[in-house]
Specification:
The chain is of the alpha/beta class and about 800 residues long. It has 27 helices and 33 strands. It binds one RNA strand of 87 nucleotides through helix 7, strand 11, strand 15, helix 11 and strand 27.
RNA sequence: GCCGGUGUGUCGGAAUUGGCAGACGAGACAGACUCAAAAUCUGUUGUCAGCAAUGGCGUGUGGGUUCGAGUCCCACCACCGGCACCA
C-alpha cells in the first residue's frame, strides 16, 4: 500500500474549501475561539520553512477546538505596505500595486498547499482602500483626541531608505531593515502620543497571559522610574530643574551636568565666560551619531561652565555646572545633579575632572575607590536630618521636605518616547490631513475616506527628505475643509505598523463598509484568545497594537481593554548549519520542495516535532525522514485493521493515557511530546499486529490536527465515518483508565537501586516496604545493618536507609 | 552594566516539577529479505572495566540542603535574546 501524498493532499484541500468547513460564523450560539498568527508581509522571496511553524501550531490548536465543538475564527491576510515592495517597484519600474498583487498570489498558493485551516473568506489586505479607509479613520480619531500631533524635532533618518524611523526601528544605531547608517535630522513629523498610555501599557499586563519574557521586555522598554524633580538656583538667577531617582543622596551632590542641547547655554551665552569652548563641545557632540555616542560611553567628556554655579537647595552649597553628552536632552529635564559617591557614571566623570566625592550612604567600600549604588543595605550619613535612615525611608522623607519647601516634588519618568508616525515614502497609507495657512492642520472629512494613494510617475524617494507624493501638485493642492481656502495635503505616509495595529479587529467583520467592524462582531469575537508571534515584535507591533486597542476602547469602539488574551512565541527555524536562514547565507529551505518530496503532512509534523516550540531549532533534512516513516506506518494500519467497535483491553490504558497526553500537550504548546506519544502508541499497536476500527478512529482523531490530509484519507478509506473534520469530535479519556493497577517500583537501599518489583498501585506504606524487603537483593543489602529510615513514595520507589 | 533565558548521548531533544536520567526521532553498528543496492523489518547503541553476571562514573564548574538533586539554595563559567550614559 503506497502512501501517495501528491494525490491525497490536493484532493482534501479542495474538498474542505468547497464545503467551507473552516468558515467561522458570526451569529453562532456556539462558544467562540479566535486564533491569530501574525499576518505575513508578502515579500518577493516567497515562504521559507520558518513561516509554517507558527501557522501549523495554531492550526493544530484550531483544528482541535473545532473537533471540541467551538466556533473557530482562524484568519489570514496580508501586511502588504512596505519598503521592500516599493524598492523592488522602483528598481524594476513596476507599480508597487502590481508587485504586491503578484507576491500575494505566490504566498497564497504556497500557504494553501500546507493545508492550514484558514478561513479564506475573511482574507484581508492592508493596501486595499476598503481596508486602509479604516486605518485612516482611526488616525483621524487619534488626531481629534489630541493624540496625533505634528512636531519639529530631531529624528532618526535612514540614509539609505531616505526616510525617518521610529526609535523602535533603530537597532544598534543602524536601520532595522537595511542595516544602513542612521543619522539625526531635524524634521517636522507626525507623532502619536503613546507615552500617554505608558502606565496602562505596563499595568494592564496583569490582565493578560503573555510569557514572562514578553512582559519583562515591554516593561523594560517603557522604562518607568519613580524619582523626584528638584529645583536648583543658579548664580545667573535662573533656576535649573533636575530629575533624579536618588533624591536621598541630595546632600552628596557635588556638581551638576546639563546636556549639550540644553537651552540654558544659549540663553546665557553672553554671560558664560568660556562660551567658545562650550560651543566647540556642542558642535563636537552633535556630530556624533547615536551609535558613536554609545560606543564611547566609557570615556566621559565635558566642559565646565565658567562664571556660573548652582546652589544645592538643602545645604546652600555652591557647586559647578558642566555640560556633557552623558546627559541626554530627551530624558527627564536634560539636567542632573551629580552624586559621584553613589552613581557609577558620575563617579567616572568626577574622577576624570577631579571633583569632590562625598559619601552620604554608608555600607559599601571606600567611595574614592568605587561608587556605592546599592539601595537595599545602605544607611544615610553626612545628610543632616536624613542621617541614620535607610535609603527607602530617606527618599520618602526628602520628597516630603522638598514638597513642603516648594523646591521639588515626586516625579515619574519613562524611557518610552512618542511614536514617530510619518514616513517619506510612497507605498503606505496617506495621512488624511491638510495644512491650511489660516487653520493649521485640519482633518479631512470622514466622508472622503478612503483618501486613496494617487498614481504617480515615480516613487523614488527624494534627497531633500520629501515624500514622492510632494511632486504631485494636482493631488497636493486642495481646499481647507474648515475655511475653504487653498490648502495642501500631507504628503508623508504612515509607517508599516499602522495597518497591522488593528487588523485582528477587521477579521471579525471584514466586508463591513459602515464601520471597521460591527459592534456585534466585535463584542462576539473579542478578545483574540490566542495570538502567536515572533519575539522581534515585542516592542514594535505588539506594543503599538496594544496602544491602539486601548485608544479604541477609550472612544467606545472596542469592548475590551486588551486585544490579546494569550500570547505565545515560536522559536526560529535555523538553517542546517545552525545559522539564521537567509538568502545570503545560502541555507534557505523552501517548503515547496519539502511538500513535493514528502508532502505537507510530513512537513507539518516535522515542524511540530523538531523541538521545543518556543526555542530555535536547526532544520535537519535527515530527521524529517522519521516523520515521513511514521506517517507511512500510520497509512499502513489500513492493512491490519479489523472490525471492532472497542479498544482491546491490552491497549486500553495506553490509549487513554495518550488521549490525555496529546490533549494536554497541545494546550501547553508541547507539540513535540504529543507527537512522541503517538509514535509510542503506534509502536505498541504494531507489536499486537492488528488494530480495531475504534482504535484506528481514535488514533486518527489524535493525529488529525497535525496531519489533516492523511487522517482524512484513512477516515474515508477505512469507512470510519462521513468526514473527519465535518462530523467527528475530539476523543475523551477516562481518568480512571489512565492509572495502572500494578506499578513497577524501584527498591533502593541508601539511594542505590537494588531491585525493581511489581506491586499493586493502591498498596499502603507498610505493605510496599515489606514487599521490597522480601526481595532477595534487598535482604542481602540490609542484612546485619540497622534500619534508620524507610521511605515509600507512592507508585515510585521504596528507599531503605541503613547504617552498620 | 541591567533585564530575560539556556547549558543533558554522535545530533534534534524527553524527564509527571525533588523519585528508575537519556522517552520519541535521527544517525551509527549488526542481522533478515535481495544476485546486489535502496526501501522495509528485527536487534544493539551514555561512558569506563569485565567473557559474563555485575560494578564504577555520568545532566557546564565548585560547594550546600535532602533518605534521594538534571530539577531546590549559594558562588562561578560559557552561550543566546533584549536594553544600554535613561540620572
Amino acid at each position: 500500500m503506497k502512501y501517495e501524498h501528491k494525490k491525497i493532499e490536493p484532493k482534501w484541500q479542495q474538498a474542505w474549501e468547497e464545503k467551507g468547513v473552516f468558515h467561522a460564523e458570526n451569529n453562532s450560539e456556539k462558544e467562540k475561539f479566535f486564533a491569530l498568527i501574525e499576518f505575513p508581509y508578502p515579500s518577493g522571496q516567497g515562504l521559507h520553512v520558518g513561516h509554517p511553524r507558527p501557522y501549523t501550531a495554531l492550526d493544530t490548536v484550531s483544528r482541535k477546538r473545532r473537533l471540541e465543538g467551538y466556533n473557530v475564527l482562524y484568519p489570514i491576510g496580508w501586511d502588504a505596505f512596505g519598503l521592500p515592495t516599493e524598492n523592488f517597484a522602483i528598481k524594476n519600474h513596476v507599480h508597487p500595486e502590481v508587485v504586491t498583487k503578484n507576491n500575494i498570489a505566490r504566498f497564497k498558493k504556497q500557504i494553501q498547499s500546507l493545508g492550514i485551516s484558514f478561513d479564506w473568506s475573511r482574507e484581508i489586505n492592508t493596501t486595499d482602500p476598503d481596508y486602509y479607509k479604516w486605518t485612516q479613520w482611526i488616525f483621524l480619531q487619534l488626531f481629534k483626541h489630541g493624540l496625533a500631533y505634528k512636531k519639529e524635532m530631531s529624528v532618526n533618518w535612514c540614509t539609505s531608505c531616505k526616510c525617518v524611523l521610529a526609535n523602535e526601528e533603530v537597532v544598534n544605531g543602524v536601520c532595522e531593515r537595511c542595516q544602513s547608517e542612521v543619522v539625526r535630522k531635524v524634521k517636522s513629523q507626525w507623532m502619536l502620543k503613546i507615552t500617554e498610555y505608558a502606565d496602562r501599557l505596563i499595568d494592564d499586563l496583569a490582565l493578560v497571559d503573555y510569557p514572562d519574557r514578553v512582559k519583562a521586555q515591554q516593561i523594560n522598554w517603557i522604562g518607568r522610574s519613580t524619582g523626584a524633580e528638584v529645583n536648583f538656583k543658579t548664580t545667573f538667577g535662573e533656576d535649573l530643574l533636575v530629575y533624579t531617582t536618588r533624591p536621598d543622596t541630595l546632600f552628596g551632590a557635588t556638581y551638576m551636568v546639563i546636556s549639550p542641547e540644553h537651552p540654558f547655554v544659549e540663553k546665557y551665552a553672553d554671560k558664560i565666560e568660556n562660551i567658545d569652548e562650550v560651543r566647540a563641545y556642542q558642535v563636537e557632540s552633535s556630530k556624533k551619531s547615536d551609535f558613536e555616542r554609545t560606543e564611547m560611553n566609557k570615556d566621559k567628556t565635558g566642559v565646565k561652565l565658567l562664571g556660573v554655579s548652582a546652589i544645592n537647595p538643602v545645604n546652600g552649597r555652591e557647586i559647578p555646572i558642566y555640560i556633557s553628552d552623558y546627559v541626554l536632552i530627551s530624558y527627564g529635564t536634560g539636567a542632573i545633579m551629580a552624586v559621584p559617591a553613589h552613581d557609577t557614571r558620575d563617579w567616572e566623570f568626577a574622577k576624570k575632572f577631579d571633583i569632590e566625592i562625598i559619601e552620604v550612604v554608608k555600607g559599601g567600600k571606600d567611595v574614592n575607590e568605587e561608587a556605592f549604588t546599592d539601595c537595599a543595605t545602605g544607611v544615610l550619613v553626612n545628610s543632616d536630618f536624613l542621617n541614620g535612615l535607610s535609603v527607602e525611608d530617606a527618599k520618602k522623607k526628602i520628597i516630603e521636605y522638598l514638597t513642603e519647601k516648594g523646591i521639588g516634588h515626586e516625579k515619574v519618568n519613562y524611557k518610552l518616547r512618542d511614536w514617530v508616525f510619518s514616513r517619506q515614502r510612497y507605498w503606505g497609507e496617506p495621512i488624511p490631513i491638510v495644512k491650511c495657512d489660516d487653520c493649521g492642520y485640519v482633518a479631512i472629512d470622514e466622508s472622503e475616506l478612503p483618501l486613496k494613494l494617487p498614481m504617480v510617475e515615480s516613487y523614488e524617494p527624494t534627497d531633500n527628505g520629501e515624500s514622492p507624493l510632494a511632486n504631485m501638485t494636482d493631488w497636493v493642492e486642495t481646499t481647507c475643509p474648515k475655511c475653504g481656502k487653498k490648502a495642501y495635503r500631507e504628503t508623508d505616509t504612515m509607517p508599516q505598523w499602522a495597518g497591522s495595529s488593528w487588523y485582528y479587529l477587521r477579521y471579525t467583520d471584514p466586508h463591513n463598509d459602515k464601520a471597521l467592524a460591527s459592534e456585534e462582531a466585535l463584542k462576539y469575537w473579542n478578545n483574540v484568545d490566542w495570538y502567536n508571534g515572533g519575539m522581534e515584535h515585542t516592542t514594535l507591533h505588539l506594543l503599538y497594537s496594544r496602544f491602539w486597542h486601548k485608544f479604541l476602547y477609550d472612544i467606545g469602539v472596542v469592548p475590551t481593554k486588551e486585544p490579546y488574551s494569550k500570547r505565545t512565541s515560536h522559536g526560529m527555524i535555523l538553517g542546517e548549519n545552525g545559522e539564521k536562514m537567509s538568502k545570503s547565507r545560502g541555507n534557505v529551505v523552501n517548503p515547496d520542495d519539502i511538500i513535493n518530496e514528502y508532502g505537507a503532512d510530513t512537513l507539518r509534523l516535522y515542524e511540530m516535532f523538531i523541538g521545543d516550540f518556543e526555542k530555535a531549532a536547526p532544520w535537519s533534512p535527515k530527521s524529517i525522514k522519521g516523520c515521513r516513516r511514521f506517517l507511512e506506518r500510520y497509512y499502513n494500519l489500513q492493512t491490519i485493521v479489523t472490525d471492532g467497535n472497542f479498544i482491546r483491553p491490552e491497549l486500553e490504558k495506553e490509549f487513554h493515557k495518550t488521549i490525555k497526553k496529546v490533549s494536554d500537550d497541545i494546550e501547553n504548546i508541547k507539540f513535540n511530546t504529543a507527537i512522541a506519544s503517538l509514535m509510542s502508541l503506534i509502536n505498541s499497536i504494531y507489536a499486537t499486529e492488528k488494530i480495531t476500527k475504534e482504535e484506528l478512529r481514535i488514533f486518527s482523531l489524535l493525529l488529525n490536527p497535525f496531519a489533516p490530509h492523511i487522517t482524512e484519507e484513512i477516515w474515508s478509506v477505512c469507512s470510519l465515518g462521513d468526514g473527519l473534520v465535518a462530523e467527528a469530535s475530539w476523543p475523551k479519556y477516562d481518568e480512571s483508565k489512565c492509572v495502572e493497577d500494578t506499578v513497577e517500583i524501584v527498591a533502593q537501599v541508601n539511594g542505590k537501586i537494588k531491585a525493581k518489583l511489581l506491586i499493586p498501585a493502591d498498596c499502603d506504606n507498610e505493605t510496599a516496604i515489606s514487599l521490597a524487603k522480601s526481595d532477595a537483593k534487598v535482604t542481602e543489602a540490609i542484612n546485619g545493618m540497622n534500619i534508620v529510615k524507610e521511605i515509600y513514595v507512592k507508585g515510585k520507589l521504596v528507599n531503605i536507609v541503613v547504617k552498620p
